[in-house]
Amino acid sequence: MLINCVAYQNGVKLADLPIDEISDYLGRPDCFIWVALRDASDAEIDKMQEEFGLHDLVAEDARHGQQRPKIEEYDESLFVAMHMVKVVDSNLEVGEVSVFVGRNFILSIRNRSDQGFQSVRDRCEREPELLRLGAGFVLYALMDAVVDRYFPVMDDLETQMETIEERIFEKGSALANIEMLYELKRKTAVLKHAVTPLMEAVGKLYGGRVPPVCTTTQEYFRDVHDHLTRINSAIDTMRDTIGTAILVCQSTVSVEQNEINKQLAAWAAIFAIATVFTGIWGMNFKFMPELQWGYGYPVALLVIIAVCGFLYRHFKRSDWL
Amino acid sequence: MLINCVAYQNGVKLADLPIDEISDYLGRPDCFIWVALRDASDAEIDKMQEEFGLHDLVAEDARHGQQRPKIEEYDESLFVAMHMVKVVDSNLEVGEVSVFVGRNFILSIRNRSDQGFQSVRDRCEREPELLRLGAGFVLYALMDAVVDRYFPVMDDLETQMETIEERIFEKGSALANIEMLYELKRKTAVLKHAVTPLMEAVGKLYGGRVPPVCTTTQEYFRDVHDHLTRINSAIDTMRDTIGTAILVCQSTVSVEQNEINKQLAAWAAIFAIATVFTGIWGMNFKFMPELQWGYGYPVALLVIIAVCGFLYRHFKRSDWL
Amino acid sequence: MLINCVAYQNGVKLADLPIDEISDYLGRPDCFIWVALRDASDAEIDKMQEEFGLHDLVAEDARHGQQRPKIEEYDESLFVAMHMVKVVDSNLEVGEVSVFVGRNFILSIRNRSDQGFQSVRDRCEREPELLRLGAGFVLYALMDAVVDRYFPVMDDLETQMETIEERIFEKGSALANIEMLYELKRKTAVLKHAVTPLMEAVGKLYGGRVPPVCTTTQEYFRDVHDHLTRINSAIDTMRDTIGTAILVCQSTVSVEQNEINKQLAAWAAIFAIATVFTGIWGMNFKFMPELQWGYGYPVALLVIIAVCGFLYRHFKRSDWL
Amino acid sequence: MLINCVAYQNGVKLADLPIDEISDYLGRPDCFIWVALRDASDAEIDKMQEEFGLHDLVAEDARHGQQRPKIEEYDESLFVAMHMVKVVDSNLEVGEVSVFVGRNFILSIRNRSDQGFQSVRDRCEREPELLRLGAGFVLYALMDAVVDRYFPVMDDLETQMETIEERIFEKGSALANIEMLYELKRKTAVLKHAVTPLMEAVGKLYGGRVPPVCTTTQEYFRDVHDHLTRINSAIDTMRDTIGTAILVCQSTVSVEQNEINKQLAAWAAIFAIATVFTGIWGMNFKFMPELQWGYGYPVALLVIIAVCGFLYRHFKRSDWL
Amino acid sequence: MLINCVAYQNGVKLADLPIDEISDYLGRPDCFIWVALRDASDAEIDKMQEEFGLHDLVAEDARHGQQRPKIEEYDESLFVAMHMVKVVDSNLEVGEVSVFVGRNFILSIRNRSDQGFQSVRDRCEREPELLRLGAGFVLYALMDAVVDRYFPVMDDLETQMETIEERIFEKGSALANIEMLYELKRKTAVLKHAVTPLMEAVGKLYGGRVPPVCTTTQEYFRDVHDHLTRINSAIDTMRDTIGTAILVCQSTVSVEQNEINKQLAAWAAIFAIATVFTGIWGMNFKFMPELQWGYGYPVALLVIIAVCGFLYRHFKRSDWL
């Protein structure tokens, strides 16, 4: 589905184009074309391949979707695949955006995501002196938008982690905590798959040999790289913390077990001693003088209660009960 | 066993050759020969070594099989060893394919695998303009076919992982889950042995210094490398997840143990209190007035039932029963 | 909030400047300006950007704060972001300092931290022959001050670790220890986030190609790098030790459990044997000669006590009690 | 102890030499000397150092033994230290072989190992066209022999691993399995110490800058490197598998514990209910009508048996017994 | 405290010098001065800094001590910091030695260690042809001495590890073993801190670009590097083994727990069945014929003993007792 197809000249919007006129404008020296598609059909991709002369392999990639984030150079043009990650009902939904960048055009195809880039286009059109930098700057602006949307996702994961940490030493919640930690670890893996390969790829857009379309905007890509490094390092820390937290949960289970066992032992001892006493006075020996006493029975009950009470206090004090 | 031996000229099939005529065609300038063997005998390999002038060491490798995936350069020719992995009855079967690539020939020997490459040959013959690129393109087409067959294997492993995850917090299934996780980890190791060394080797077929037969098809090899990277990273994630899942299983066992112990303790307490009461009224004191009452016995039973019932409710409420 | 704005010439303080005169002094050949801000407002940053011609992206970074420690080169100038870590009530508080270094100026902006750099300025003014080295030396002096403040933090963490280690094999303290270890691990992560990226960045200020402002002070930056390496390696060791210590705590819990179970078993046996004996003499057989004996009862009690005593001694000896 | 000392010319054996004539033959242009020692005495090493002009440090190394596998270049000559690993009574015995390679000589000293290299010499003498390649080829042949002997060791370890895996989920064998896994891990460490450093060292004998004696046989060393890589990767996989297997064993112990606890709880319940019933009918209330019934006793027994039987079936069904 | 201050010429001792004459001898072309200090005071370091023209930063380092092992190049001179590790009462004591090497002098300062270098000086003076190589060789000799002293420390740790391994599967010793393993791991960390950074630093003293004072002795430094690599790899193996060993200890605790629980269950069953029987015959039913039998009581006792004995044998056989 076509969203926009606009020609710019010297950083200023020239016209909304019908797709078929793209090739006319591509020839003009100062002209620059920016096309945005969403959930593009094969036919649309074929059309684009023809207009912009895309390589077979990248067109293939765009048709199939499900790319790893990557940046590939084809002669003068660049193919960029990025993941778009969004929190929906505390799950992570992953969409994709493929960006094809040439000397004087940029084509973005967004798949399975409702997060658009209108705001990027607006920002670029408001800053013609930057838009004049051409395709490289628009690529930066798109990347910056994609990467900026990773931060709230990371924040969401960190909030979840904090929720777990607040109750990690609570008794009885170990299994629920482990379940949440496992879920959280899976989410970090999803985000990491979006961030790490992109980070590695963006690292090649500044510093050393740089694709021609990016040379004038290297410092911007370094900024994107820096953001990705920050998220990546936050993810790594969280993954490490999750590992430790699972160990902690396992320990709380074992400690709880010890407490249960102690209580079990203490009550067993109290009841057992009472049983022994009643057993003794239940024996059938002929000469058991206390059985004949008038107050034998209440005294016996008192003795039993006293012994049990003593044990109870003893266990209470040594923290077994 | 010979499967095919075909000469091509300018991307078009010329003729099916008997093996002995190979050397005649090898001399022709535009000619290109593609031979496919399956479970080759030593005699066949000797014959091929003679016809194509293969190096002793690679002929040796082909005879022994059991290679690590690798790509080795010998002067102008290339030796490629790949693993073919297939799911058979939820086990992974590993076969091998050795490919010898020269300036104007390609020889593939497939061992212990029933996954053929007829479809690759058909595809190449349908696209003469690509086949005209020569041995490098055929090598790419073979690799692409091998690598594409890793994806369903990976999908199968991921399906198994999901099956385990669905019941990972179910009680009593911990051991079965761990057994399946252990099995799954072994399968990932098999797939990783096929993928990782090949990925590293293919990474040298584009970008920097590249073997002569691959120079015109670098972008294709980058595509293969990208696919291998994707599988490799999926395997790594799965291996990490398996480790965490085993920890989770261990935790569920411990949590279950706590629950068993709590029940044990609760029932022990209930029975013990009943025993103490019957013990008390079983004592032989002379003056135990309640023993003489007409309703002493039923009242006693009621007292015992009431106390036990009270304890039962107490344990139910505190979730021990 | 402006803290200082001073012009130096040949290492000697020239004058305290009002902000508006900065540009006048920047032009003078031997002059060097050192400005220090604290929790700078956007307006102040805008002013500074104008005066010193800072790049949009770094000004943006300074406005937002929350940078990873990093060193970025912009043409002739350098942007350095560092974390300032401080122990407050046994928690770690993290502030930031952003430093902008040009050929003849240095601007530091400190955020969310009350640890000032007056001592650095004093030290520099006392050593005019070093201050004459210019912006590179002041940058070193600031870095050195920041890094030196990591050492007491590390010492504090090591003291906590030692406290835990002293009681790591104490019974009953496992959960408290694990809680402290978990807390400690989080703190090491905070410190590591300050140290490791800075270490990597500083490693590029000496040896190979070095930013122009740092060329004359390379040996000083190597010294800073060496300090950071030392802290970094101490953190890594501590993180590894924490992992082992958690395993140890888990083991003490299990060992304690064994001891509890042994005690439980031993007391259960003692009471059970007594119960069996009282049960036997409580049976209603007509002919049980010992029941008729005059000393039957005390003998029975003695037998019971003797058997229980014997068991008690047995368990004591085999260390179950 | 001298085993062989032979001079070759153009790949053909010339003569068995006494040690003292070595220097005479070393001078001849096409001549090549191959000396083999076993458990050499210090005197023999001194003699060899003198004859071949070995560097002090390598002679020192040869005297002390206990080297890490390594390859060191000294001007025109090469010093190679390798471990020889052998399975003896399911233990691994480690010997060493030190090889000194010069332009026209090769000296091998074998220590603490009864695995000789006569077969290597025979093979070389049978292939004069290869032996003519000189010291580099003999070095390859020796290395190849050493490395080929690692494979049966690895196979042995894998057989042991499979034995353990067959019974890893068997109850009661956990401790024995862990013991064997621990033992196996130690053996993999021994083999890894032989393989990994050698692999890294051999990686420098082909491809980039290569020591002069190895230039003509680079492809052979790549083959050795490939074999070492294969073993190394098999070891790494095994070590990882052992780690997982120990986790699995720990889990089986915990699962078994749960089963024991369930049985304990079930039997405790059955006996306790019986005790309560006997206690009830053992009470001394005056009016307990059932005690007077003629069939009271058998009915009581039946009731007790029925209740216990019901519980038993209940526990059987819920898999606690 | 000054230990030695000697001037050498052409590898031969010239004279013991008073400190103040150092500068006189430094000027002479073939002369070489070797100074050794121990626990040097600040005044002594100031003096040395003046005599040898040491850089401020290294003098600072020498004053503070507590360096990481490192090798730093300052123009023509070299600063080397090494740790000296010694076993004292089964603890590791760490001292330091700082070595300053110039074109024609070497200065060593030893701190907090009683392990001197007189033997090194003696060895050097005995080999004037090596001593003639100058400062580079003396540096090697000192390093070699320091590194050689790591081996007995490593041996000591390995002996401790073996002691633990001998009893690792013994029952009841798990906690003591874990305590020793934890202690051992800390010691390996201490040794690793001495070895690993030094290994990395020494790796730069041969092969590529090498500091001028070391060029003639590269092969000697390669030998030192080789020794350090060996120790480093032994430490890594041991750390890995310790991790596995702790897992093993945890498992023995769990297995022991299972055995305790089995015993507990078995004895509970035996006593419980006896209690049930005594309870039955203690019931007050009017018609219980066996109670009237003359041999009822002894028969009852026999029945009880028989049943208990049967259970006992049953548990013995199934290995629960």
Task: Note the topology.
The structure is a homopentamer of 321-residue chains.
Chain A: E1 2-9, E2 12-16, H1 22-27, E3 31-38, H2 42-52, H3 56-64, E4 70-74, E5 77-88, E6 91-101, E7 105-111, H4 118-126, H5 128-131, H6 135-148, H7 150-166, H8 174-202, H9 218-281, H10 296-317
Parallel strand pairs in A: 3-7
Antiparallel strand pairs in A: 1-2, 1-3, 4-5, 5-6, 6-7
Q: What keywords describe this structure?
A:
homopentamer; 321 residues; alpha+beta; seven-stranded mixed beta sheet; 17% strand
Mean pLDDT of chain A: 91
Order of helices and strands of chain A: EEHEHHEEEEHHHHHHH
Biggest sheet architecture of chain A: 7 strands, mixed
Count the strands of chain A? Answer: 7
Strand order of the largest sheet of chain A: 2-1-3-7-6-5-4
Number of helices of chain A: 10
Helix content of chain A: 55-70%
What is the oligomer described by this structure?
Answer: homopentamer
Structural class of chain A: alpha+beta
Give the largest interface.
A-B, 57 and 44 residues
The whole-angstrom Rg of chain A is: 35 Å
Q: Which parts of chain A are unreliable, with pLDDT below 50 for 5 consecutive residues or more?
A: none
Cα end-to-end separation of chain A? 69 Å
Strand fraction of chain A equals: 15-25%
User: Given the C-alpha coordinates, what overall shape of chain A results?
Assistant: rod-shaped
